[in-house]
Structure formats: structure tokens, C-alpha cells
């Protein structure tokens, strides 16, 4: 499942697979946008994850669960803001694809993903990008990602800070809870 903004036309080479992905996403996603616990990857310690610091901002724990769908992937991470003013993630780019989005999962009558213009990072606080909440989607991946691959991610912030870091692709564990079944759209 891809997060898309109005006016963008997604490539859908396998309509039946896309329909199945929508059903799996609706059944598996949950929670409101915002902080949520991330599922730990199997065999990869937190120290094996990507991150960067710049100014008052710190990105840590960045990882990509091995995608079930080779055309899309998701990035999970945490952003901390030590500044006295709120900030926000306003853009994302990756080495895996020219098409990446800031997204949020909304929980209502049925869970759905939508693109967002920004992801708030509160002053003196942090935001966790995780399954069931805010996350980064990588769309139209040309070369399938496999465990052990590394992707360069650049985040742009409202404060004009830009942070570039390398993110490992890791195996996702089947932890109990709402995170367990969300891998169907990754």
C-alpha cells in the first residue's frame, strides 16, 4: 500500500495484488498517528540501526523492515528535539527511490494510511515513527530491498535542518500486538 498525495498516479502492475494489499492493510493497521512502539527487528540490536544529529535534532533507531512487497518499503525511527521550540519533519528523500512520503495511519471505521505535510516534533520531546502511527513510505522501489541492504535517507525539517543517515534493512519479528500483522504493505 502506498501513501499518495492528490494528483499523483500510482503504478499498479498487479491490480489483484494491490487490492489484496489494501485488505491486508485495513485488517492489520491500528492506532492513531503519533508515538507508537516500534517492533524490534530479529537479530539486529538497536546499535545496528541508523541515525544522525544536527543542531537540536537527533534521529536514532532508524531501520527498514524487510519489505513483503518489493515495490514499497517503510522506515521506522525516532526523532528527538532538544530545542525550546517545536519543529517538524517536512520532507524525506531516499537512495532507494525518488518517491518517498511522510505518512500516518488513521484508525476509524477502518484503518487507512494517508500522506501528511509534516510530522510534528515537540520542543524538548520526541516522536517515534512506527507501525500504526507516523512513518516514512518508500514507493516505487526499483531494486528489491533485502536484509543487510542499506538505504541513505535524508530528512528535511521546518527549522531548515537537513539530516542524512544510512538505514539498514532488517528482519521484522512477529511480536504480539497491533504491530505484528502490519508487514503486509511493506
From TrEMBL:
It comes from the Bacteria. This is Copper chaperone PCu(A)C. Residues 1-38 form the signal peptide. PROSITE patterns: PROKAR_LIPOPROTEIN. The keyword Signal applies. Keywords: Signal. InterPro entries: LpqE-like, Lxx211020-like, PCuAC_sf.
